[in-house]
Amino acid sequence: MNREEFITITAIILFAAFCLGWFACWLINRLTRMTRADIGELEQMAQALHEAEEMRDQAITYMEQREAELVGQNQQSEAELRAAMDGLRDARQEAEELRGYIERANLPG
Hints:
By secondary structure, the protein is mainly alpha-helical. The protein is built from 2 helices and no strands. The chain has 2 domains: 1-35; 42-109. Helices cover 93% and strands 0% of the residues.
């Protein structure tokens, strides 16, 4: 094999490798190409995801407001309970004082 035959065979092999690579690239692009329907479906999914995120944010806001409301009601109920317990304690103490006064008043003496 002389020099010119070697160069020619090498050029043919390189050209064949280039053609094979180009064909493989074309085939992969053809198989993985997205159609308009796929793009439309992706847009619908993105819109649905966006709406779901908005609903989640609204739900979180509502839950935070509701929690603050319930905490306030709980604090108010606890304050009312403390006031009622204080009033009950005062009433019991007054009742004991009245019992003692009645017992002393009813003693013969």
